[in-house]
Amino acid sequence: MNNVRRMTILALLSAISFLLMFALEFPLPGFPPYLKYDPSDVCGLLAAFSFGPAAGFLVELIKSILFFLSGKSADGIVGATAALVAGGTLVVAAGKTYALGKRPLVLSLLVGTVSMTVLMVTANYFIFLPLWGLPTHQITMPLVISMTGFNLVKGIITSILTMIIYQSLRTKIGLKGAETRA
Known about the structure:
Elements (H helix, E strand, L loop, with lengths): L2 H21 L2 E2 L8 E2 L3 H11 L1 H18 L5 H24 L5 H27 L9 H29 L8 H4 L1
Antiparallel strand pairs: 1-2
Helix pairs in contact: 1-2, 1-3, 2-3, 2-4, 2-6, 3-4, 4-5, 5-6
């Protein structure tokens, strides 16, 4: 695949990712309303599985910058950074696992989901919640459980959407390797 085509696909995935985050961000039932889901990480995963983890991270970075610049990020730079850390972890971990070869798509997405969950619970506890004004000594176990559950559910929903879309697009836009590892 030539560089122009690759750059065009990555630019489209970045734009679609931003639009999904901008237009489809919503709280999941059963979780605190400030924990919002959007399907934008699907685009980063498609890029990671097609062109490698760095390409997936680039899509996540561009999406997060555009979202912050749009002014829709209610939590400002801290929220945009948290979204980048979450999406970047999911995409890079899943993309690296998939790039190892002979790893099923499902296993790669599971590694990404678990990695994102562990990192985001830790980062929220020690970095992001304190930056939002909640000191670590006020973070209770129910909040930690809620953050864990939310990230697992987010990863599962995103993984299912990614598997469906990746399988249907792999031949249309020349995605590599999916037919033998899906």
